[in-house]
């Protein structure tokens, strides 16, 4: 690990960004060039002390997960992301496979969506980044680890928890859609990938999954209209729009409600109260 190179790189990348580049308000009397350290730490979901130690050449070797968070926070290009991994003593991630890296362009779109739930997902239905409105509606996904990061995995492995967000009559359709999506990802990534691990694990523990997997339905789609169940506000009808990256490995999901509708009022209430219990 090259601590000098890492510190210099983080400093220059931080200075090159303005608050508006990442969806933050500059505020009054701002003297810092670029982003503050605490702002980068906030965007990367880490402590300010940890990030500061990296810039001061005092930090431990960051994990691959921390580097992925830093790459998103600093809006790094693929080449810059690969450089960050290498100076920290890690191999650069395979660009052709499933990755936590989110391209700066799609992050810029997400940064400008404050009033409506929006999030970026991988082909394995892993939430890579989400805005505050999405956290209020769907819960905070940042603490999920391992196979539990995949919404496909959670749907079948923890149905009593995951399926509460959808009306019971929608469960069969959702199950089919998720398995078809995993089959599509499996075809691209191969059996020796996270897609293969998820399929093998679910086939062993869920009869429902095993039956649907044997059908070999292949499709990656998002329902344009759906009903979500919030634990405090109840049913919320939303329209779902998906913006895919060029290689279709990730999608920005935006949830909206018809203006003047009850659902729109509920989303507005969620925007105000955030994740507090009503």
UniProtKB/TrEMBL annotation:
Protein name: Helix-turn-helix protein
Annotated Pfam families: HTH_31 (PF13560), MLTR_LBD (PF17765)
Superkingdom of the organism of origin: Bacteria
Listed PROSITE patterns: HTH_CROC1 (PS50943)
Organism from which the protein derives: Microbacterium saperdae
Annotated HTH cro/C1-type domain residues: 34-81
Lineage summary: Bacteria, Bacillati, Actinomycetota, Actinomycetes, Micrococcales
One MF term in the entry's GO annotations: DNA binding
